[in-house]
Amino acid sequence: MKFSDLTGIGRLGGPDGEGFYQVLVKPRYRSVFAAAEDVFLIFNSDRVFYVTISERDISDRKIRVKFAEDGIAEERKKHREVILAIENPNAGGEDPEPVIGYTVVFQNREVGKVTDYFHNNAQYVLVVEAQGGKEILIPWVDYFVADIVHDPGVVVLVNAASLLFGDS
Questions:
Q1: Maximal C-alpha separation, the chain
Q2: φ, ψ dihedrals at 46, nearest 5°
Q3: Between 40 and which of 13, 68, 85, 143 could a Cys-Cys bridge form, CB atoms 3.0 to 4.6 Å apart?
């Protein structure tokens, strides 16, 4: 698993006398964290723990948790900052299946239609059938796919001139 497969949702504080760790969760992830049973603790670039939350205590707008696993307190002492993370909802890909049949647009001009997709072990790639039957492959990454408008079914591209027209 790569760190790009994880989404940092907050920070883990040190343990208190009862064995609870205070967690600071970003506001937009509070509901996700409230439903989470398992989370990742990222200590540094080569230390990631997958842990199970065994108890929660929410009081005075403070969130405290206990973990089922041992060794967290010892590892926590060695690091200045510990990131609390969940599996990225887009890990393994933001499934492009709902965009099959969508019109692909670049610089306000229709390029073609999404006919298929595949994962190339790095990201999903959209298969676009251009006018004239030419097949164009577009990596589904923010650099190329600026927006997806589900109604009326449009994929908006940016920075795609080299993909569409070559290096001219």
A1: 70
A2: -125, 15
A3: 85
Residue keyed to tokens 């591209």: 157
72-86, 95-109, 142-156: segment of lowest average pLDDT = 95-109
How many CA atoms does the CB half-sphere of 109 hold within 13 Å? Answer: 7
* Percent of the chain residues past pLDDT 70, beyond the cut: 89
Are 12 and 82 within 8 A, CB to CB? yes
Tell me which DSSP letter residue 143 carries.
Answer: T
Q: Which pLDDT value is given to residue 93?
A: 46
Category of 153 on φ-ψ map: left (φ > 0), alpha (ψ -120 to 50) or beta? left
Cβ atoms of 29 and 83 within 8 Å: the answer is no
In angstroms, rounded to a whole number, what is the distance separating the alpha carbons of residues 126 and 118?
7
